[in-house]
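Re: your question from the hallway

Yes, I did run it. Sequences:
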Amino acid sequence: MKGLLAFAVIIAAVHCQKLFLGNQVLRIKVDDDEHLNILKSLENQQHLELDFWVPPSKTGLSVDVRVPPASLQVIKHSLEANNMQYSVMIEDVQAILDEEQEQMKENRRLERSAKSFNLGAYHTLDTIYNWMDTLKAQYPNLVSKIQIGWTYEHREMYVLKFSTGGLNRPAIWIDSGIHAREWVSTATAIWTANKIATLYGNDASLTTLLNRMDIFLLITANPDGYVFTHTSNRMWRKTRSRNSASSCIGVDPNRNWDAGFAGPGASTNPCSDSYHGPYAHSEVEVKNIVDFVKSHGNIKSFISIHSYSQLLLYPYGYKCTNTKDYKELDSIGKSAASALQSLYGTKYQVGSICAAIYQASGGSIDWTYDNGIKYSFAFELRDTGRYGFLLPANQIIPTAEETWLGLKSIMEYVYDHPY
Amino acid sequence: MSPFKWVVLGLLPLINGFALLKDHLQSFEMTRTAMDSENLHNELPHSTLHLEEAEAALEKSMELNPDLRMEKLNPANYRATRAAQVAVHYLNYKQGSLFCHFSRRKIENATLEEIPGVGNKYFLTFIEDETPSKHATGVYTAEILFRHTITKMAPEVNSTYYGCVKNISEDENTFYVRMRKQHQLVAGKYIPDGHGNIPTEMEPFWHLGYTASSYIMWKESNESTLFNMETVLSFQQLETENDSLAFDYVVLLHEMVSQEVTQWTMQVCWSPFQGVKVLHYSQSSENIQFPGDAKAIMSPTSLDK
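Structure:
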């Protein structure tokens, strides 16, 4: 009978008819043989046009029947007159069918838009969030979406998880967009997410990695700031939190981590673009990541993506002395930069934050390193200043493609060196 | 002058290449045609670079005067990068070209000399680009002096380089002739726009803004800054009484160390003969919105051919 229903739905859909308007599905209790006989006789009355989804068979087994609106009163009176208990399982069959149609349409649209999402363009936050759902829908066995908290302005913060199973596997974390104006970092992360999803099962190295490790990808670590760059100020860097003693808004989220917090290279002035904030992890966006990393407890590599300057950096920023793993990190960095350069000739400098750009306290990869995540790196993507933050969209894909080679190089090293 | 200073001065020709080139760099009031004949028609460098000789000479000077504080820097170190950036800004402004710009190449060697009572001097040599292009020029060596004075002083730069190729001056002439033919003053906004786009018609105005901004970036630099121009927020052509074109420009500059993006206004003159000149500049407090989705606009929408 259900097959007939399905067929009818197709016909209805084709003819845009609402065949099942007002139809209800009743579940009727069959307590004794008398009930059974009544139901069997109802079954035989063709003019009632009853459609038994679960036909009367024996006592104790409830019967499900679809009743057209014209027969509803008659059936209900019959049942009540014979002391037969029933419940309305579906109030309006058409409504369910309509919803199903909508869902199917939506899924087809999501599928189409996953294929038609332009990876070589800059997108608004809403578009990016919608796209995350399409990616999830396209690769349900690999990709899931985790909410790690809220932003200051109450936007959700989502992390994409790439996992083939297991329980709390060793993981690699990648984040981008912590500084709102660094649009190419966000765009690169989107491309990268898509790349990981498509490569699994097709690329030996990545497949091997994902069979033993998870990858977490936070595409925008500063959603409030990102929205602000679209609507108001393309050059905005910080969060959008209100400062208590100042009319200036926002804290530099990469000076807000508990690593040499409030030391050199961060400003005490709320109006400054490198303001460290009132205290470490004051910014909810930073706190969300800190809490996630701590509670996960098994992250082996933490990679932050920024722009611009074409640098591959490792700790420390808050002090100008080398980490104890300096030689190893430098070697990993140089290999990654070399892999990156191999594609389009883009040259990267490799070094500690303090040596390569400046002493800067309160940075994310310093905190992660000091909290046991040895393979902590930061990328500063294209270019070296000609366009700076305003990198043309036609450079997104080349940037992402070359960066991928650098990321892969690091990830493969991490995989090969468990600790 | 102390013996040390004589030694340094004596070393300059070795570091800078031929004395002719050094004199050339110091007399930038020359017309562009004179510069053309020196630089534009040659694709080969003017001076042969004798790196080993330069380094040997530096070491010798250290022996002569032990008070000399010389420090070999890691070429990837930020101190070298910042000094190199200053040299690039200086050269871009001094060369004064519309379409031809220096960019900061990878540093091969870097040395810092602390001169007591004067300031810090950086000696840099650069790695050559494998594929020089029409619009690129190349710096071979640069010497940058940051004076430590109470009043702000612009860094002093001496350098060896190769300049623009001949075709650039033709492009500039073409643009100049076209601009002189326009019936209305040209104005525009957001080059590049929030998505990094620059409409082809508006490219020359970006180039002009970039060369002119180099003046500001050079003048405002010190050892704790690294400037880049982000965008031309707006430009407005002005009437002139002579052959030059003149514009009011408002630009956004990004300073890497503080991470501040600041707004500057300047008055710019240009002609193919005089090159780019900045008449005056100041930090701007005009409230110009720059939302990410703003598009580049120009008035008129296209230039008359």
